[in-house]
Design goal:
With 182 residues, the chain is of the alpha/beta class. It has helices spanning 3-17, 20-34, 55-61, 131-142, and strands at 42-43, 67-71, 80-83, 90-92, 98-100, 110-114, 117-118, 124-125, 146-150, 171-173, 178-180. Strands 3-2-1-6-9-10-11 form a 7-stranded mixed beta sheet, with helices on both faces. Strands 4-5 form a two-stranded antiparallel sheet. Strands 7-8 form a two-stranded antiparallel ribbon. The relative contact order is 0.20. It comes from Maritimibacter harenae.
């Protein structure tokens, strides 16, 4: 299966699985998975379309330490992260994203990573821009950085087309289970 076909399959499964009740189950698992890391700089994401929703957990984490959300750069560059709280004013960004209009930069030690698809070995399939792979590579070159994929269980694919630049995840959290790889 090539990446385009894998993305179509995983996105169709995500659209089908999208449900606030599933989000609540996944949020409970995400809370548990991140509890030992609370207080460390964390980056999450603002969900787009039918992406699973991490916002309630990000709001809880923001009471214990800095939480950032991605600022999408030009293609070929890593993400940067700007401080976020539930009250932060947002502006429209690139590729349908939103981010804080202003605020301090957050250099995360932990990232909640959105997924188009994933496999049971800790590999992820993104939208194709390579932003998270470049970001994780740059952060991990400086210090240990934990990457927690967050998606619906239905987005699991039996096999992913991988490239040498793909960065592995340390865990994947869904509404059904938490997979750990380190």
């Amino acid at each position: 299966m090539d990446k385009a076909e894998a993305r179509r399959t995983a996105l169709a499964a995500r659209d089908e699985a999208h449900d606030p009740e599933r989000d609540r189950f996944a949020q409970a698992r995400l809370r548990t998975a991140l509890a030992p890391l609370a207080g460390r700089p964390i980056a999450g994401f603002l969900p787009i379309g039918t992406e699973i929703d991490p916002l309630p957990i990000m709001a809880e984490l923001a009471t214990e330490g800095p939480v950032g959300v991605p600022i999408t750069p030009s293609l070929g560059h890593p993400l940067s992260f700007r401080a976020w709280t539930p009250e932060t004013p947002l502006i429209d960004g690139k590729f349908g994203t939103r981010w804080p209009a202003e605020g301090d930069e957050v250099v995360p030690e932990v990232l909640i990573v959105p997924l188009v698809g994933f496999d049971r070995a800790g590999n992820r399939l993104g939208y194709g821009g390579g932003f998270y792979d470049r970001t994780l590579e740059a952060l991990r070159a400086v210090r240990p950085t934990v990457a927690v994929g967050y998606a619906y269980a239905a987005q699991e694919l039996e096999e992913l087309p991988l490239e040498p630049t793909d960065q592995p995840l340390d865990a994947i959290v869904t509404e059904a289970e938490t997979l750990r790889f380190t």
